[in-house]
Design a protein that fits this description.
mainly alpha; 4 helices
Length: about 110
């Protein structure tokens, strides 16, 4: 059965899926202006791995690996840039008024019946 699947087609589909998986995170971070819940360490390690995959792709001359990793590197680069900007350029965000974390301790346990 696996003989019927062309390796470049399989690689291409895998490349598209793993690459577009980062688009929602990029859009969310870009629109919200916050990367508070994004792990910088994870993205640095992942980006290092992508760079090695890209080098590997060039060595074996695999277009799906090369293209997917270039695009994914661009997307993760955006997230890392936003994360660093968020960490270095902004004070920590405080919860908005009315948020449960801003309620005074005197209101704890109070129930409106």
């Amino acid at each position: 059965m696996l003989d019927a699947i062309h390796p470049d087609l399989l690689g291409g589909v895998a490349a598209v899926l793993t690459t577009i998986a980062f688009v929602p995170q990029v859009l969310k971070s870009w629109r919200s202006g916050s990367t508070r819940d994004v792990s910088l360490g994870m993205f640095v390690i992942f980006t290092t791995g992508l760079s090695l995959w890209l080098i590997y792709g060039f060595i074996i001359e695999s277009r799906p690996i090369i293209v997917a990793n270039i695009v994914t590197l661009a997307l993760t680069g955006i997230i890392i840039t936003l994360k660093l900007r968020d960490m270095l350029g902004r004070a920590p965000r405080r919860p908005a008024a009315g948020h449960p974390l801003t309620q005074s301790s005197s209101q704890e346990g109070r129930h409106d019946d």
